[in-house]
Amino acid sequence: MTEQDGPVAPDQDHHTTTMEKGRFCVAHCTCGWRGPARRARSLARADAEAHPGAVTGGHPQC
Ligand SMILES: [Zn+2]
Q: Where is this region: Disordered (predicted)?
């Protein structure tokens, strides 16, 4: 059983992380939301924190 298998429930927690994508950093959420590519991780993390219902403090990767 994997955690990323199948669609997510709309009422599940929003755990946001930031991930490197090439030269950019992108915010991701467990609900499937993704922020825009940012050059600075601080901007990507700001996007994650601005995501409705976001729970930060996970495992930021960039
Ligand atoms: Zn979300």
A: 43-62
Cα of 17 vs centre of ligand 1, distance in Å, is 10
* Domain coverage including residue 31: 14-55
Q: Is the pLDDT of residue 19 over 90?
A: yes
Tell me how many domains the chain contains: 1
How many whole angstroms from 23 Cα to the centroid of ligand 1?
24
Token pair listed for 24: 């950019």
With respect to residue 34, please indicate whether it lies within any of the assigned structural domains: yes
Strands of the chain (E only): list them. Answer: 14-21, 24-29, 54-55
Between residues 17 and 58, which one has the greater pLDDT?
17
Q: Ligand 1 centroid to 53 CA: how many Å?
A: 6
Q: Percent of the chain, pLDDT > 90?
A: 58
